[in-house]
Amino acid sequence: MTPLRLDAHLIDYVIIALYFVFVLGVGWWAKRGVSNSIEFFLSGRSLPAWVTGLAFVSANLGAVEIMGMSATGAQYGFPTMHYFWVGAVPAMLFLGVVMMPFYYGSKVRSVPEFMRMRFGTGAHLVNSISFAVAQLLIAGVNLSLLATIVNRLLGWPMWVGLVLAAAFVLFYITVGGLSAAIYNEVLQFFVIVAALLPLTLIGLHRVGGWSGLKDRVAGDGMLGAEQLHTWPGQQLSGFSSPLLSVIGIVFGLGFVLSFGYWTTNFVEVQRAMASKSITAARMTPIIGAFPKMLIPFIVIIPGMISAVLVGEMTEFKQAEAAGDAATAAATGVTYNDALLLLMRDVLPNGLLGVAIAGLLAAFMAGMAANISAFNTVVTYDLYEQYVKPGAEDGHYLKAGRVATVLASVIAIFTALIASAFSNLMDYLQTLFGFFNAPLFATFILGMFWRRMTPTAGWTGLVAGTLSAIALWSASTFFGLFDLPGQGLAFVSAATAFVVDILVSVVVTMVTKPKPAHELKGLVYSETPKTDLVDAEEADLPFWRRPVPMAGIALALVIGLNIVFA
To answer: Which residue(s) pair with 47 in the sheet?
Structure first.
């Protein structure tokens, strides 16, 4: 079958070129504000909440959000909304209201550094290494898709696209540091919306509007009707029982995976840490929650449209649902192609250029976020802590830039791993189950239980991670059981969480805790309430205060779950 190519014209290439000029210009402009390591890694803690809030969302608008969610939307339909309305917004609000005061108030430079202050070097080393590895793997996902777009657009071999895309992101992160990444993420947010909104509206028009889409999805085989309801989401969760499916989605995705990702992932937390005050840091994820709950309509809906409108996708989905692997393979496409195929078939030239620029923006935002978080953790938490402590600040600034180069090179190879998965959400949710679920268990237990000991911190992390890997291997490599959909990722994450908690409690009972005076700013019961808020917060209007705005966001997301149930 002829490889998928996007029929771009001169106007499309001009639009894409203009976007790249803007990105490089932002990186060069941000260079003037980088004179020390804090400015390079944390933007000097000087950015306003609206900037960090949009960057918070944009940093996650990478491969997971765009290609991964459109692919999952094409495969499962409305239940994919759970990744936003259950698996993101509640945890983002919890991060802003409860956890950000501890991160920001302790003046740590990274999430692993918070682990060191709370649990000592054992947990710190485990967290730093696992986080660094995870960022390299996830950066590979974004880079793989960047190279795919270049391949579809120009026909260049994948390896050429990988090298060029990595070099481009490397330039503006190395020159401008976190500020370049954040300001580009704000730019990229608007470019992404400008790209995906027309695609959604034109696609809906082609299928006869909202009612036409629902009619065509409902007629798409015996599982079509299920794909028009978010609950109980059995196809997504992999559980045949509606009750078990709801429990799996709420506990596995909504609690363990979601809170594990959003509250402990330094890629996201780093954006809030760059804010200019505790209030701005708390508002960062809360501001981000409002666009976050609307993004499914321009990401998941196009995937669903592609599955019923594009011939190859319709044929592939029907063959896969019937278990006909040979016919599915013969189509030459996978669910990851859903968005590209829809762009090819419905967008006129000009809008196609905007859409391609939007995808490039998304993947670069995701990769840049991964690399900027990686270089901070490698420099502060591994190199400074264990290799060369006490060096002058300029030395660590150079080390951070070297780490950026290293990450960009390694991501070229991890991109090859990602390219082997037909649905990237399977791969990414597996990674989150391995690394984020046990970390959240350790964090939440250590933040609210002052008795938890340093030894329990690292042993719980290791035990939780190993249990998730063991369970996943038992299914994937040894075939001891099978859970389709995202069920295996949900169960692996839940297992990691429970094992981490159990091991931490048992080890705490037989080991020595830290003295209470060392826990101020790290444990809720030992931290004065005045340390967790800015003194002038009470005088701000309600739209600038974290708790009222979090309440409004929570009410809205509950309403969305009810309307689309």
So the answer is: 275
Tokens, residue 496: 């990691």
Q: Which of 456, 445, 459 is nearest to 522 (CA)?
A: 445
The pair of structure tokens assigned to 339 is 């968005």
DSSP result, 507-565: HHHTSPPPPGGGGTTTSGGGS-GGGGS-TTGGGS-GGGSHHHHHHHHHHHHHHHHHHT-
DSSP-assigned beta bridge partners for residue 275:
47
**Cβ contact 220:233 at 8 Å:** no
- Render pLDDT for 367-391 as a digit per residue (tens, 0 to 9): 777 887 888 888 888 999 899 988 8
State the pLDDT at residue 38: 63
For 310, the token pair is 């594009």
Question: Could you give the 3-state DSSP secondary structure of residue 322?
Answer: coil
Tokens of residue 393, six digits = 């600040």
pTM listed for this prediction: 0.81
Backbone angles phi, psi at 300, to 5 degrees: -75, -45
Q: Is the dihedral of CA 62, 67, 71, 73 positive or negative?
A: positive
Task: Quote the CA–CA distance of 511 and 120 in Å, as a whole number.
Answer: 14
Whole-number Å distance between alpha carbons of 241 and 283: 39
**CA-closest candidate to residue 497, choices 405, 428, 402, 433:** 433
